[in-house]
Amino acid sequence: MLRHYKTVNNQIPQTEDEWKGVLTPEQYGVLREKGTERAFTGEYWNHHEPGAYVCAGCGAELFTSDAKFDSGCGWPSFYEALDKSKVEEHIDNSHGMRRIEVTCAACGGHLGHVFPDGPQPTGLRYCINSASLGFKAK
Ligand code: FE
């Protein structure tokens, strides 16, 4: 499914009110409030078409189907980002855990977390909320 990105005058929204105007409540809750969708409920955990996964906030291409793998965790999982520069990592000590949060480098939106239990060649598992993503078929 190709989503179309609403923006404010073709700019990335600058205020939370602007973000609320362009995102669905579910997207807002994940991207801007760092929420997590329930496992096995999102649009892409079981999605296998070839193409690019883009940020639902700003449209930046973040991951490709080539690096997607079936993790069994109920969220879309990738062993690497399209490019290291596309995502940023932050220490997240919330919920009594020490995790690495992943955000979109272009708009700062929360995407999910990266864990060191993925497959080769990287050994990483980018565990990403479907609500943070859109998809462009190849
Ligand atoms: Fe973004």
Q: What is the CATH third-level topology name?
A: Metal Binding Protein, Guanine Nucleotide Exchange Factor, Chain A
- Please state how the strands of the largest beta sheet are arranged side by side: 3-4-8-7-6-5
Radius of gyration: 14 Å
Strand content: 25-35%
| CATH hierarchy: architecture | Beta Complex
Largest sheet: 6 strands, antiparallel
Going by helix content, strand content and strand pairing, the class is: mainly beta
Distinct ligand kinds: fe (iii) ion
Please give the alpha-carbon distance between the first and last residues: 12 Å
Query: Structurally, how many domains make up the residues?
Result: 1
CATH class: Mainly Beta
The number of helical runs is 2
The shape is globular
Instruction: List how many beta strands DSSP finds.
Output: 9
Estimated helix fraction: 10-25%
Helix and strand sequence? HHEEEEEEEEE
Keywords: Metal-binding, Oxidoreductase, Zinc
Binding site for Zn(2+): 55, 58, 104, 107
GO molecular function: peptide-methionine (R)-S-oxide reductase activity; zinc ion binding
Enzyme class: oxidoreductase
In short:
By secondary structure, this protein is mainly beta. The chain has helices at 16-22, 25-31; strands at residues 51-55, 61-64, 68-69, 77-78, 87-92, 99-104, 110-115, 125-128, 133-137.
